Amino acid sequence: MTTEDDFHTALAAEPRDWHLRLVFADWLDERGDERAAGYRAMGLRRVAPTLWRGAGVWVWLNERYLAGYKNREEELRVSVLPDDWYNRLPPTRHASRCAEERRVLREALDDAARAFAQLPPARRAELLV
Question: Which residues are bridge partners to 58 per DSSP?
């Protein structure tokens, strides 16, 4: 893969491919991109947003929201971010959407990567273990 679009096309085909996120993190790191550590953290922690099929949005959760979906906990566990990371997700640019919903996978991943970059350095290091 030679472009960012190539990586996002591959991620769209396999949204939960944590290996690919690690390779993409290395590619971003080589280019000095601030999102590199966030993609690395998503890969190492094996987290990815879940497509909420009925609404057609990609969703990140935290533990509080996951608790409301006991019947889907196993399926949705992969989409849980720690509260301090989750709380740094920017509000969506879509009217009437809450902070964790994104219409496009690329947006959901990039927003999570940028939110990770806002964490204090010690916390980022902790989450990368």
Answer: 51, 102
Q: What angle do CA 40, 2, 29 make, to 5 degrees?
A: 30
Q: Is 59 left (phi over 0), alpha (psi -120 to 50) or beta?
A: beta
Q: Residue 108: which residues within 8 A CB-CB, separation 6 or more?
A: 49, 58, 59, 60, 102
How many structural domains compose the chain?
Answer: 1
Predicted TM-score (pTM) of the model is 0.89
**41 three-state secondary structure:** helix
Q: How many angstroms separate the CA atoms of 112 and 107, rounded?
A: 8
Q: What is the pLDDT of residues 15-30, one digit of tens each?
A: 999 999 999 999 999 9
Computed from CA positions of residues 93, 97, 99, 101, in that sequence, does the dihedral angle turn out positive or negative?
negative
Q: Residue 88 belongs to what domain range?
A: 4-127
Q: Are 60 and 49 in contact (CB under 8 A)?
A: yes
